[in-house]
Design brief:
Four copies of one chain form a homotetramer. Helices cover 34% and strands 18% of the residues of chain A. Chain A has helices at residues 11-23, 49-53, 106-118, 143-155, 170-176, 190-196, 213-224, 253-260, 269-273, 276-289, 315-331; strands at 2-5, 27-32, 37-42, 58-62, 82-83, 88-89, 95-99, 123-125, 159-163, 179-182, 203-206, 231-235, 265-267, 293-297. Chain A has an eight-stranded parallel β-barrel with strand order 7-8-9-10-11-12-13-14, surrounded by six helices. In chain A, strands 2-3-1-4 form a four-stranded antiparallel beta sheet. In chain A, helix 6 packs across helix 7 (213-224). The first copy, chain A, starts with a strand and ends in a 5-residue tail after the last helix.
Chain lengths: 336, 336, 336, 336
């Protein structure tokens, strides 16, 4: 932490700051510039920087160290590659996750997975518990849905991912899924994150709608600090003033994360845009920008979907997109 | 729902739209303008409007009815006034809630409450479970903290409010608090909201950091649809591009809510600004804008606080603010 | 400027940074912490910090000095008080500016000003050149409008303010107005700002819709660096994700500016909210938060206004608001 | 325009609304739903919708027609292709514009253009007048710079684009450039746009930092309404809460614009990200998303650039990127 004093700060004010940081176990390094005195605080315990910021004569406080360590590339320079039974995430091969928003029935899941299998999909998605903004909307099939999805995933030799919404669902989910999904609204549900740090399955952590990249990595840190190092980050759009799209997919976050962290990063163009005809262009853009994979909604019959049909691709649309992505992957040195 | 067709939409396209909405149980009212045909869809069941939006020839969809009913002033024109044992919220009198961020010890709570009692505070605040962004920060005293806070509140004849972070904490919290607080990060934790709809204590519902006013009212609806009508809305700042303050307190939300809903609305200037010296100006502004009350962090010794001391007022600062608010209350026809 | 090196930065990388900043005329002060080496760069000429940020081994760059000097309270601790012929802005008395959005006719201006004179208004507003988003909307009366407004202002012994939209209008405007207004869209029209730095009338500088407080002060600096120190800042709402109001009035900016700068700050609740019924609550909030004044749209017949009638108060509504503000002013130690 | 009445609106209130819209020349079409009466207003002149919104009993107003016509794909279904002397923009071939931020000298321009010519660049960029946030930064070479850039462009058989900052510069610019650039800060400088509508050279219109897509198209409409139909839209990043990148490049805007408008759209990844190492991933993403081209900063010696060197590519970096884009172009059916 660096404390920048005001240009007119008195020696007394400087001394108070030094004394305060020393009381918190820091060593103070003072350097006097032309205009400002800067005090470096080294080696102490955690302190609320704002407490120093409020002292007389202080201009501002500068944090030096990032709050996350385990998620940082600084301390782990090589990419994390997460191994599943039939594929890897974060390696050279692009990882495609596809399936419907909600698990609705055996027929729906089977028809969708059969179509996806043709296009080489190795990870199936489908929600069993749905966080709906209206209390009157379809809330998901629960365990019954998980059973269906598991049977279908096994039939087509796919892994399965589904969203966990609260701590009490974890034991149940563990019986069925290969990857636990944490939704955008739960990105800072710290109690849930802490529990997920103690399981031994990968966590797909979506970015919160108004979360900064630093907060997102901090949430990954919560999980990792419990011992579970297999975190997959998923960009799914942030909220901005623009209303022409549901959210603004922050594609810049992909190269930023690649620089800051060793964790794999994928993107969810379906939820970001909310409309089927935007999914293909955004999918292509994410792979071109360096994403390790995508999670896309595909439904065997989107017009009859109980949830988010409007943003689900038809299977043949996925097929066309898949061919485009194959070409783009070669441009960025990846395998599709 | 109104469906606006493109200026060049064909009769066939119009017919497909009509057929689709009729299949969903709606009656179609078609009116042809100079440029656009508009189709009104009346009386059907819930439908994902985007499904219609994707049909050929459709320009856009317009939702007519708001998604919330119980929270809406349309169906409940008079203000909701929530009765507590020693005061009311939403009536003519301004409701002030004060106390430390976290419950730290009996001494701290007692000293703070003693000071606040002098200024007429009737509702004490204090966190027992703390949602901290870092896994290494102080996480709260838990039930021990609730016991302390309850004893102190009783001693000074105050009501008590504290934050509930997950469903499993509800039974415990019910034994100690008079008002359950839902934090900004849980505003869309729908499972939690649903459970809170079944208890018989008021809920203080903070606005999410990037939630629209409509979503906020929809979250109130979640609680109310379970039968609990005593919801207090709390504006606590939204996230914007401005970095000079921690969040941007959306004071305009106060008159907007007053128009749309009958629920009481208070504000939290401490969390919004994050710095003590901004709390007084923002508190005055909220009361001047018509808020029903404030929730403010006050600590007997902010510089030693384990959490958010930098945004906590000293008791005497609260006293000065209190005197200013008394004057402002008269300007807006309220009692302080 | 401080350069924070990565934890794993090599001595070679540190040396390259030192060499680079010394080539730009800075002196380097190196201090080694537990994890990071920090290099202070003192006394050099302007440099694009990103150039250093891109060097190998650099974690981040921290700017120490703010980019504005003349606008900063650091170098000018006392409030700036701007003297007009009949009043002051930034002193103990609250400054109220009122009038219609556009100057439409002598009758309209006279009727409006006559009503405002009763409530003690000393500064009249009215636009002669209107920046309209549609090329087909009313574009203002131009010089004819300025003549009308000047005659009316003189009749009621008021000062006049009106918006200047481009450099070529400056000489004309100088003949008629007492305060030049710079609109939100021109806040970073640097050519215009530079010219306004050479005139000897006060400038009312509105904040851009997506401008940070620092950029706003930097724009004030542009004007002041030309010699014109009489800048009045005007908060008028920023753009956020919230759509229930036209813009989000950033009332927190008022105490923030009061801390950072010595310049007077007023607010424009009419443009921020865009709706008449939000103007009074927001006006009260701004004065309660410490604003030095307000600029409010009032029209003798808002329903017939050619521009922004929906956000204009009726004269008697202004009268009621005025009485409330008088009370609030006393709460914050101001004269109304 | 549709007027949705409140569920409890009285017949009297409905009558007042009808009367008001008829006074403005509209015909009223009334349709009564289960809950709401909806009044369609057809065929009248321009009216400020808020004036109706403020009438008693009105729930909300819905605009039916978009404010832009000439820029809309509704009235011009085929893509606009802009013809320059040596290439087209908006056709099947991707258009690449490259060059330094500022024109600094003949040597710099020549060395940069020579390198770019090898990679097939047909349009050179370079600023002669620079809008700098600090009054002390390099402000550009002015006409001298334009002369240099023109000579160099001619030598390498390239077109030239440069930014026009105000009306008074138009005649001068016309002598030198092939495409006039309007910067983000001038996107709503309506006086400037109006003048540019009368010239016969294409306009490259950058999106404002906080402008919606609708406002952007409205600004294009301003130019087109004067007769100049050759507008090239340029996405360059919007301002959000994220601070890890300078701006958030809104790549979703590319498919959105392609649906709403027939105008060509390109992107500027250099200004959006502000850092060289983000330019390649974002460039690839934009082409993958369907952009018609890119404008990229390339400098023969970025480390010595007088302006924005940190975001400028080295010529060989441009070459590598170029090869990647060639592959991606094939994936989206374009020629590179």
């Amino acid at each position: 932490m660096l404390i920048v004093m005001k240009s007119m700060a008195t020696q007394d004010q400087i001394d108070v700051v030094i004394s305060q940081i020393e009381q918190n176990g820091f060593t103070a390094h003072v350097s006097k510039g032309d205009i400002h005195t800067v005090i470096g605080a080294v080696g102490g315990k955690t302190i609320d920087a704002r407490e120093i910021e409020l002292l007389d004569g202080v201009e501002k406080i500068v944090k030096i160290t990032s709050s996350y360590k385990l998620a940082s590339r600084t301390f782990h320079p090589e990419n994390t590659v997460i191994k599943l039974k039939n594929c890897e995430i974060g390696g050279k091969e692009i990882s495609m996750i596809a399936g419907p928003c909600s698990i609705e029935s055996e027929e729906q899941m089977d028809a969708t997975a059969a179509a996806l299998a043709q296009y080489g999909i190795k990870i199936l998605r489908g929600g069993a518990f749905k966080p709906r903004t209206s209390p009157y909307s379809f809330q998901g099939l629960g365990e019954e849905g998980l059973k269906i999805a598991r049977r279908v995933a096994d039939k087509y030799n796919m892994c399965l991912t589904s969203e966990v919404m609260e701590i009490s669902q974890i034991p149940l989910m563990l019986d069925y899924v290969d990857i636990m999904q944490v939704g955008a609204r739960n990105m800072q549900n710290f109690n849930l994150l802490r529990e997920l740090g103690h399981i031994n399955k990968p966590i797909l952590l979506k970015r919160g709608l108004c979360s900064t990249i630093e907060e997102w990595l901090m949430s990954a840190e919560y999980i990792m600090s419990g011992g579970n190092m297999d975190v997959i980050l998923c960009e799914r759009g942030i909220r901005t003033f623009e209303t022409a799209t549901r959210n603004t997919l922050d594609i810049s976050a992909i190269p930023v994360i690649k620089k800051l962290s060793h964790l794999p990063i994928i993107a969810d163009p379906s939820h970001a845009s909310g409309l089927r005809d935007k999914v293909a262009p955004l999918s292509r853009a994410c792979i071109a920008a360096g994403a390790d994979g995508l999670i896309i909604e595909v439904h065997n019959n989107p017009e009859k979907a109980l949830c988010d049909g409007a943003q689900s691709l038809f299977p043949n649309q996925y097929g066309e997109l898949s061919a485009q992505l194959k070409t783009i992957a070669t441009a960025v040195g990846r395998i599709f």
